[in-house]
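Design request, tokens follow.
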């Protein structure tokens, strides 16, 4: 049986309700780009709000941590991982949490007790030593030599402030060496795989600690690591979780895994994360900001490493790998199958875009370093701007040659360029606009009209979730809980055409972001915008934060036709439309 199923069954048998995995992009928390732990979507409940499923819950949560994206390529780092968790929301506390952790790992997973060790919170001047956890482990049969007391590593908090508390962590001795009697948490042969956090405190932004209204338990077990432990492999990519993916990469590259591990691991890991991001109901697409930028970096880095593996980059290798991943995970994450066509399209389109410039960009890179010199900011920016090389890619390429990149110089150039594009109203916040041809500009204006029309016909809850424009058509994703009726489609189309006929003027102004929002301007993701924003208004009917460009008057648009209305993802519909 799969580890996820074993875990859920076990905690359900202990009175827990299983909750679904939340999307990888947090729904109501603009402070982080991705969910980085199972507890993140549960913060309101850890702070005291009542959870609709009660006080004992468990799940497996998709998580993404990109702070050490560049580390991926070794045996253990991943950008995407799944965390198993059980939570007590003011219900049980240390005794049951530790007893159940112990029962699960020794009885269900049958890990031998002689390979186990734990850490507990050692105490400081404000929070005392966690004696209760220490004694509990002792009573369960963990010898005192295998219980280490630490302070910094045994206090858990997500980020700088929020619910937090002392924790106890479980380790497994993953080595063929003789097991030392005394456990040393710094010895890397001991691998941490599960963490029980006793969340009884709240740390505010000034660092002040206070008591939470309830004492909670938050646990997190890494699926990847634990699977590798159970299967006795010390390279995560050799566990059953990766077998099909690595086998496929071996077969399409016609190279062995040995000797090519780094690029193969990067390719496997990055495609998996890209699959999960682009299948998310939030509809993230590759872009130059925030989550979209991470997605772009992942795909482009994957392509670069595929090239190193001599995989022909014009082939559909990304889709092939993605399909294996979707197949493997769809039982647990239905959105992968539901959004498979979106995922494959995202990968394909980004690959096409990058392939256009990759070869030339690599040549340009070679030219820049031909005398063995480091890369200055202007050259790094040129590689970014003209050849689509994310700065991190340039740094990685440089590192491989033992060279450095002037990142500060790059950033300076980047900011100058941003300021310039803002005044030219053709900045980077153009939401899916692929180029600036005349036709695309028309479609861009039509997108605003469609957004405004849907709000009137379908309801004020309609919000843009994404858009994509080519010279042939526009595509518009929006929040809506039902399939549009023929009547709704007809009315929407008619309203847009009426506004086109009325010849409404399109005007632009620069405003402070907050003023713009208060004036009722529509925007997709508020946190994505700079402090000073451009706002486009179309007559009295539409007002949106946008980088443009747009036509001067709606009369330039021709006739608007809805070609297709379909589901995009859960709660999101998609319209494809043309201007004739
Ligand atoms: N929040 C803790 C962690 O991520 C336990 O779930 O490790």
């Amino acid at each position: 049986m799969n580890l996820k199923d074993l875990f859920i069954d076990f905690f359900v048998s202990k009175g827990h309700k299983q909750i679904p995995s939340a999307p990888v992009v947090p729904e109501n928390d603009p402070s982080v780009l991705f969910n980085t732990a199972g507890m993140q979507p549960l913060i309101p409940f850890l702070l005291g709000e009542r959870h609709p499923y009660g006080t004992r819950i468990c799940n497996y949560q998709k998580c993404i941590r990109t702070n050490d994206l560049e580390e991926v390529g070794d045996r253990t780092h991943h950008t995407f991982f799944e965390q198993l968790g059980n939570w007590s929301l003011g219900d049980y506390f240390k005794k049951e949490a530790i007893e159940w952790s112990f029962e699960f790992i020794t009885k269900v997973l049958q890990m031998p007790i002689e390979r186990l060790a734990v850490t507990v919170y050692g105490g400081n001047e404000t929070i005392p030593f966690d004696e209760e956890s220490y004694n509990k482990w002792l009573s369960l049969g963990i010898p005192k030599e295998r219980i280490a007391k630490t302070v910094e590593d045994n206090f858990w908090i997500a980020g700088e402030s929020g619910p937090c508390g002392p924790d106890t962590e479980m380790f497994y001795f993953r080595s063929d060496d003789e097991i030392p009697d005394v456990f040393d948490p710094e010895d890397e042969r001991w691998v941490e795989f599960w963490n029980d956090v006793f969340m009884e405190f709240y740390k505010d932004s000034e660092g002040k600690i206070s008591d939470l209204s309830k004492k909670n338990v938050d646990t997190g077990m890494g699926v990847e690591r634990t699977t590798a432990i159970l299967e006795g492999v010390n390279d995560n990519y050799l566990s059953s979780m990766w077998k099909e993916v690595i086998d496929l990469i071996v077969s399409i590259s016609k190279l062995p895994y040995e000797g090519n591990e780094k690029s193969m691991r990067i390719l496997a890991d990055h495609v998996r994360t890209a699959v999960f991001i682009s299948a998310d109901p939030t509809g993230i697409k590759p872009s130059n900001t925030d989550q979209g930028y991470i997605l772009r970096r992942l795909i482009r880095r994957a392509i670069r490493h595929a090239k190193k593996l001599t995989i022909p980059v014009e082939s559909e290798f990304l889709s092939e790998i993605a399909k294996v991943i979707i197949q493997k995970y769809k039982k647990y994450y239905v959105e992968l199958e539901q959004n498979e066509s979106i995922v494959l399209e995202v990968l394909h389109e980004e690959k096409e875009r990058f392939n256009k410039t990759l070869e030339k960009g690599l040549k340009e890179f070679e030219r820049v370093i031909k005398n063995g010199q480091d890369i200055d900011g202007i050259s790094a920016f040129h590689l970014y701007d003209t050849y689509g090389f994310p700065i991190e890619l340039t740094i990685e390429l440089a590192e491989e040659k033992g060279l450095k990149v002037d990142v500060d110089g790059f950033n300076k150039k980047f900011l100058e360029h941003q300021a310039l594009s803002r005044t030219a109203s053709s900045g980077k916040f153009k939401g899916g606009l692929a180029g600036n041809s005349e036709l695309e500009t028309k479609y861009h204006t039509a997108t605003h009209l469609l957004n405004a029309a849907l709000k009137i016909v379908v309801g004020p809850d309609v919000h843009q979730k994404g858009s994509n424009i080519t010279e042939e058509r526009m595509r518009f994703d929006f929040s809506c809980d039902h399939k549009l009726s023929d009547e709704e489609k007809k009315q929407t189309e008619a309203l847009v055409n009426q506004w086109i006929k009325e010849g409404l003027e399109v005007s632009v102004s620069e405003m402070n972001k907050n003023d713009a929002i208060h004036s009722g301007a529509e925007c997709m993701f508020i946190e994505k915008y700079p402090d000073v924003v451009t706002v486009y208004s179309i007559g009295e009917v539409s007002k949106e934060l946008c980088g443009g460009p747009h036509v001067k008057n709606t009369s330039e648009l021709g006739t608007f036709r809805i070609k297709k209305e379909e589901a995009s993802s859960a709660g999101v519909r998609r319209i494809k439309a043309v201007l004739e």
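Comment from the thread starter after seeing the answer: thanks! The first strand starts at residue 17 and ends at 18.
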